[in-house]
């Protein structure tokens, strides 16, 4: 049990680890392509509103549950609500993390493959058509399987040793470096001829382009980008020292996330319009546009390799948090070997990821509700399960968790007045669940 109750060495370490859990594929890979396929500026504005009004209170809720229980996700609900059905929230989170990992790790494999190609100088200069390269990487089964296996192997090796020392220390160095590289990329993208059209697309809202489905995507993206809804950050915050301020830490994580999303948009959309790509490209958007932008830079191959290495790190920190909730659920209460559980989990996720890989080739004609395997899994996780998980957690906070304990955790380590706690409770009790339910009903066409 000792290894599970170690603590973050500092508030900065916790914030960067939590930001690392959130700022991976959500902010860098997924945000540009869902924004591109859902109308640009209006979607971005909705995403910001949902992140601040719904995502931030949800992040605080997961932190409060985690530190208040000092347990990983499944055991946390058992401790706070013993002998009740509320414990299923933790189990729902474990299932959600597993499904999310089944397609997230496939994309992680793509990032790893592109990193290897860039480091060995096989992208810029050797590839006249970046779209064709992406198609080859995703549709060639053996490339996808090797990438998936290697990505999961890194996860299993790191998590079998425990993540606190390595990840906390690495985050302090690599996350700021990722910001610096993003700023370089933004500067180059904005100076491309014709970039202003992309800036307008991204920052000038046109609400006529928003559909009810687009609103659901914006809500789902706000949860996906912050990694809330599956109780991943319940586990992370269970290691947080009592003297640290939860609202302050959550606000820092949300601020960093929104900033990275802004940078991702400013790096990608001006380049899309300047270089003649389509913003509706889909999951391959980042992999097609990035090499094209770096090709326009001096030492582009080197910068692309360095950026992809940092992007790979951000992707790994997110997958670590997803895998950690599963591993913790099976090791903390049952005293099982962490290394064995990590190995078995990695193997099962690998097997679950195979249909997603084949969905770009052999199984490309297989669809669920009209969507290919990859898109169907993503839609189920991001737009159905994550909002449901957030709804369950909001109801737990509102009707089950002891108010005195919540207030104690919320106010501990900061000088905030009790009025802020009352505001947070109001948001969790009325705004968060009502907005989620309205968006759901509207999307399903019930009203």
Automatic annotation (TrEMBL):
<dbReference type="Pfam" id="PF00209">
    <property type="entry name" value="SNF"/>
</dbReference>
<keyword id="KW-0812">Transmembrane</keyword>
<dbReference type="InterPro" id="IPR000175">
    <property type="entry name" value="Na/ntran_symport"/>
</dbReference>
<feature type="transmembrane region" description="Helical">
    <location>
        <begin position="344"/>
        <end position="374"/>
    </location>
</feature>
<keyword id="KW-0472">Membrane</keyword>
<feature type="transmembrane region" description="Helical">
    <location>
        <begin position="380"/>
        <end position="399"/>
    </location>
</feature>
<feature type="transmembrane region" description="Helical">
    <location>
        <begin position="86"/>
        <end position="112"/>
    </location>
</feature>
<dbReference type="GO" id="GO:0015293">
    <property type="term" value="F:symporter activity"/>
</dbReference>
<protein>
    <recommendedName>
        <fullName>Transporter</fullName>
    </recommendedName>
</protein>
<feature type="transmembrane region" description="Helical">
    <location>
        <begin position="12"/>
        <end position="31"/>
    </location>
</feature>
<keyword id="KW-0769">Symport</keyword>
<feature type="transmembrane region" description="Helical">
    <location>
        <begin position="297"/>
        <end position="323"/>
    </location>
</feature>
<dbReference type="InterPro" id="IPR047218">
    <property type="entry name" value="YocR/YhdH-like"/>
</dbReference>
<keyword id="KW-1133">Transmembrane helix</keyword>
<dbReference type="InterPro" id="IPR037272">
    <property type="entry name" value="SNS_sf"/>
</dbReference>
<keyword id="KW-0813">Transport</keyword>
<dbReference type="GO" id="GO:0016020">
    <property type="term" value="C:membrane"/>
</dbReference>
<feature type="transmembrane region" description="Helical">
    <location>
        <begin position="43"/>
        <end position="65"/>
    </location>
</feature>
<comment type="similarity">
    <text>Belongs to the sodium:neurotransmitter symporter (SNF) (TC 2.A.22) family.</text>
</comment>
<feature type="transmembrane region" description="Helical">
    <location>
        <begin position="173"/>
        <end position="195"/>
    </location>
</feature>
<feature type="transmembrane region" description="Helical">
    <location>
        <begin position="257"/>
        <end position="277"/>
    </location>
</feature>
<feature type="transmembrane region" description="Helical">
    <location>
        <begin position="215"/>
        <end position="236"/>
    </location>
</feature>
<feature type="transmembrane region" description="Helical">
    <location>
        <begin position="132"/>
        <end position="161"/>
    </location>
</feature>
<feature type="transmembrane region" description="Helical">
    <location>
        <begin position="420"/>
        <end position="441"/>
    </location>
</feature>
């Amino acid at each position: 049990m000792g290894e599970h109750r170690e603590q973050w060495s500092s508030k900065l370490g916790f914030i960067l680890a939590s930001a690392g859990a959130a700022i991976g594929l959500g902010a860098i890979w997924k945000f540009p392509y869902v924004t591109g396929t859902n109308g640009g500026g209006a979607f971005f504005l909705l995403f910001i509103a949902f992140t601040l009004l719904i995502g931030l209170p949800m992040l605080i809720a997961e932190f409060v549950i985690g530190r208040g229980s000092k347990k990983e996700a499944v055991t946390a609900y058992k401790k706070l609500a013993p002998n009740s059905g509320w414990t299923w929230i933790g189990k729902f989170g474990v299932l959600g993390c597993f499904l999310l990992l089944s397609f997230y790790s496939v994309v992680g494999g793509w990032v790893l493959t592109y990193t290897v190609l860039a480091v060995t100088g096989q992208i810029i200069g050797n590839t006249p058509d970046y779209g064709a390269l992406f198609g080859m990487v995703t549709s060639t089964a053996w490339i996808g399987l090797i990438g998936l296996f290697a990505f999961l192997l890194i996860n299993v090796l790191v998590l079998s040793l425990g993540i606190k020392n390595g990840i906390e220390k690495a985050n302090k160095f690599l996350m700021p470096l990722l910001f610096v590289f993003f700023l370089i990329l933004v500067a180059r993208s904005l100076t491309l001829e014709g970039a202003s059209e992309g800036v307008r697309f991204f920052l000038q809202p046109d609400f006529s382009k928003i559909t009810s489905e687009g609103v659901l995507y914006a809500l789902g993206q706000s949860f996906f980008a912050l990694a809330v809804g599956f109780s991943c950050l319940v586990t992370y915050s269970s290691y947080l020292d009592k003297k640290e301020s939860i609202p302050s830490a959550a606000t820092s994580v949300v601020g960093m996330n929104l900033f990275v999303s802004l940078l991702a948009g400013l790096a990608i959309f001006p380049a899309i319009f300047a270089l003649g790509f389509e913003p509706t490209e889909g999951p391959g958007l980042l992999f097609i546009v990035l090499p094209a932008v770096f090709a326009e830079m001096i030492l582009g191959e080197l910068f692309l390799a360095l950026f992809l290495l940092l992007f790979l790190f951000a992707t790994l920190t997110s997958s670590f948090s997803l895998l950690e909730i599963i591993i913790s659920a099976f090791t903390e209460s049952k005293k099982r070997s962490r290394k064995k559980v990590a190995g078995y989990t990695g193997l099962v996720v690998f097997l679950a990821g195979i249909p997603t890989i084949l969905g770009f080739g052999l199984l490309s004609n297989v669809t669920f509700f009209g969507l290919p395997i990859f898109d169907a899994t993503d839609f189920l996780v991001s737009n159905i399960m994550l909002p449901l998980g957030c709804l369950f957690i909001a109801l737990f906070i509102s009707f089950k968790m002891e108010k005195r304990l919540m207030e104690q955790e919320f106010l501990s380590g900061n000088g905030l007045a009790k009025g802020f706690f009352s505001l947070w409770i109001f948001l969790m009790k009325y705004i968060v669940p009502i907005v989620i339910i309205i968006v759901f009903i509207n999307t399903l066409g019930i009203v």
